[in-house]
Amino acid sequence: MEEKKFKRTTVTAALPYANGGVHIGHLAGVYVPADIYVRYLRLKKQEVVFIGGSDEHGVPITLRAKKEGITPQDVCDRYHQLIKDSFKEFGISFDVYSRTTSKTHNKLASDFFKKLYDDGKLIEKETEQYYDEEAHQFLADRYIMGECPHCHNQNAYGDQCEKCGSDLSPMELINPHSTISGSKPVVRKTKNWYLPLNDYQDWLKKWILDEHKEWRSNVYGQCKSWLDMDLQPRAMTRDLDWGIPVPVKGAEGKVLYVWFDAPIGYISNTKELCDGAPERFGSWEKWWKDPETRLVHFIGKDNIVFHCIIFPTMLKAHGGYILPDNVPANEFLNLEDDKISTSRNWAVWLHEYLHELPGKQDVLRYVLTANAPETKDNNFTWKDFQERNNSELVAIYGNFVNRALQLTKKYWEGVVPACGELQAVDRAALDEFKDVKAKLEAYLDAFKFREAQKEAMNLARIGNKYITECEPWKVWKTDPKRVETVLYISLQLVANLAIAFEPFLPFSSKKLRRLINMADFNWSELGSTDLLKPGHQLSEPELLFDKIEDDVIQKQLDKLSATKKANEAVAYKAEPVKKTVAFDDFEKLDIRVGHVKACCKVAKSKKLLQFTIDDGSGTDRTILSGIAAYYEPEQLVGKDVLFVANFAPRKMMGIESQGMILSAVNFDGSLNVTTTIGAVKPGSQVG
């Protein structure tokens, strides 16, 4: 297929819901790769706009508002600002970051729907939906919970089970209930407007399956699986009170479906940008209606259907708009071998990371790109984060830069020396990196950011190898002229690194340019061997990256461990009561109160503690209990505990145990010895 030529590029990044912060899954799946691509296009002096914004309608916003007892707008205002500030501090270089509650968006989305309605592109359908009689409203999918029919999770939503990942419809749930009132919903008829996707199926098949075979296999495959089935009309309106009102007579109490509303936010945010700076960006229509503009959506895999099938159908039905040329969707990033979940707070939140690890933006950008889930789900661990920082950014990239700058300072007071006669080792090093620009561009143009970053890091590997082979600190004593050549070539590699890493690590690239006094550069110069001229003065050397110590990582692991325990506490349900027994059977047990006179660990046993118990008989009783992992012996001395007195004696580790200490096992596996609230005489019976 002949490659299409474009004059400019519109890049969008999925609009995050303004009901919480942004986490590393969002960053790895959408925002870091989008930012890398946009920075790359800007470096090539290409015309590009980078569009972002907050998605502020839909049920997740209202759920958060109800939970906190505030209005949906309060929720939006808080999290929109938090997300916007976090993106800015992290270096996500949007040209505009707006919101779907803006007046510009409200009008554009409303007008878009009205045109489809007026042109007869929508169909009106009456369907049965769940209705909450106590709350007096129809229930959107996320307002309904029940038992998943597949894995029997009791807390599945009406659109998805977060435990097994199954897509659901509310009618599939077992024993559904309203999350608003808790009552069992009833089925009622309601009217909504639908986009007849089935009318566009043949067009979608040709446009995607025939004309976009270059799309990533995960994107193409998911689209094909949908298109191989019969597409059905999709509701574009909802029975809700939060959102953009449906601009049609008789649609009172209904709003635009959030997945109709949100992607139009890309357009309205572009309009807002262009209206505010027309001299720089021109008309918004050239970014959305000119066939010479390329449209690229960066999204996660859960949004593929909306961006590849539903939104393009909306644009096609409306007419006049360009369609996405590529949708490089990523798979999911897990956290410490567990699925990231906002509801369980199992995430690394960007705003918290920026506060707890200040100045480490590029470290996270580097690790997320190195672990990018481009074709399959991947995993983030704090140990890998530490290892990549210490073994790659510090030991390879930072080490090479520091060696080159420190040696130049030592031998030439930080002035770039002249290049003398080249030897075989010099030519070999130069030959290794001469194609870096072509290799980087091939990967970046194909949205293979993980491989592109590897190629950039390879420059530092070449540099380290070159300096080690040449040993300038030894040669200086006998041949200073030779060292001039070695350091000249090394410094050219350093300058190339500043350019090559610019799309990936903008903060450290800026710092490196300051260290080598390279204020201006051009992407076209990447691969050049004369970026720093002889006589050019360098700045005082500084370390480019710092080692991350174990205690920093342990704090993050402890934080996740506390989250896991909190989740287990919330999710805890007592085991079902055992089979009924006769009261006579219970009476056979002689449970008594004993006073712990002494307690010690049993030699050669990791599990056992040995108790000396005053049981009220006048003769001390010895009991062994396997609770050494939960208590130090001194914690139990002086306590009144419950024990079974009439079990037959049993020998363990050569010691006779005369009973059993009673303990309660907690939800997290911890254990608590049962004691009395007040003082009770030893030997008192329980019953």
Automatic annotation (TrEMBL):
Named cofactor requirement(s): Zn(2+)
Domain TRNA-binding: 585-687
UniProt motif 'HIGH' region: location: 16-26
Residues engaged in binding ATP: 342
BP term (GO), one: methionyl-tRNA aminoacylation
Catalytic activity: tRNA(Met) + L-methionine + ATP = L-methionyl-tRNA(Met) + AMP + diphosphate
One of the record's GO cellular component terms: cytosol
Binding residues annotated for Zn(2+), in chain numbering: 148, 151, 161, 164
SUPFAM superfamilies in UniProt: Anticodon-binding domain of a subclass of class I aminoacyl-tRNA synthetases (SSF47323), Methionyl-tRNA synthetase (MetRS), Zn-domain (SSF57770), Nucleic acid-binding proteins (SSF50249), Nucleotidylyl transferase (SSF52374)
Pfam family, one: Anticodon_3
Free-text cofactor note: Binds 1 zinc ion per subunit.
UniProt xrefs under InterPro entries: aa-tRNA-synth_I_CS, Anticodon_Met, Met-tRNA-synth_bsu_C, Met-tRNA_ligase_1, Met-tRNA_synth, Methionyl/Leucyl_tRNA_Synth, MetRS_core, MetRS_Zn
GO molecular function: ATP binding; metal ion binding; methionine-tRNA ligase activity; tRNA binding
Motif ('KMSKS' region): 339-343
Keyword annotations of the record: Aminoacyl-tRNA synthetase, ATP-binding, Cytoplasm, Ligase, Metal-binding, Nucleotide-binding, Protein biosynthesis, RNA-binding, tRNA-binding, Zinc
The keyword tRNA-binding belongs to this UniProt entry's keyword annotation: yes
Keyword flag RNA-binding: yes
Subcellular localization(s) per the UniProt record: Cytoplasm
Highest taxon of source: Bacteria
Subunit structure as annotated in this protein's UniProt entry: Homodimer.
Stored HAMAP family: Met_tRNA_synth_type1 (MF_00098)
Family indicated by similarity: Belongs to the class-I aminoacyl-tRNA synthetase family. MetG type 1 subfamily.
Protein name per Swiss-Prot or TrEMBL: Methionine--tRNA ligase
Species name: Segatella maculosa OT 289
Organism phylogeny: Bacteria, Pseudomonadati, Bacteroidota, Bacteroidia, Bacteroidales
